[in-house]
């Protein structure tokens, strides 16, 4: 191969290497938006028990373990080594929303619920507001029929019911037998 061709190949390789290095450095906001538009869907990950302020307010000292379980649900962590302690943990990870994590612990003694402690729990309304999507004007379907639509339905319901005949000759035309054979063989 002549020298000028080899130098041209080297020059092309160096230009390609330089362009690729320069492309890595020019990953700007427009490039990030484009890359985020083509990234795969990320699943929302929800783990644990949702505990609300109303549930915490309903806890009373001396409640049995079953009463606490009925109120708060099955604990996420119940250790054999700490039999008198139940830990409730709630986490939610969603794309574009800060991760939420809440912890709540209940302690038991021989008489029942001794004490409880944990993060500040949101009210039910606050929790629902924190997990709703960021859709500005969600399209809510109309759930009631107008009187005109109801009148039309009543008029249509007087029509004869559609036939269930499939039109095939394979349909079973004989009635089922009146007596079926026994399911078990007779004892001998």
Would you write up a description of this structure?
35% of the residues lie in helices and 18% in strands. With 188 residues, the chain is an alpha+beta fold. Strands 1-2-3-4 form a 4-stranded antiparallel beta sheet. A hairpin with a 2-residue loop joins strand 2 and strand 3 (97-109). The chain starts with a helix and ends in a 31-residue tail after the last helix. The model has no long low-confidence stretch (mean pLDDT 77).
Break the fold down into its secondary structure elements and pairings:
Elements: H1 3-25, H2 29-37, E1 45-48, H3 53-58, H4 65-72, E2 85-94, E3 97-109, E4 112-118, H5 124-131, H6 147-157
Antiparallel strand pairs: 1-2, 2-3, 3-4
Task: Summarize this entry quickly.
The protein contains 6 helices and 4 strands, in the order ααβααβββαα. By secondary structure, it is α+β, with helices and mostly antiparallel strands.
The mean pLDDT is 77
Order of helices and strands: HHEHHEEEHH
Helix content: 25-40%
Largest pleated sheet: 4 strands, antiparallel
Key terms for this structure?
188 residues; alpha+beta; 4-stranded antiparallel beta sheet
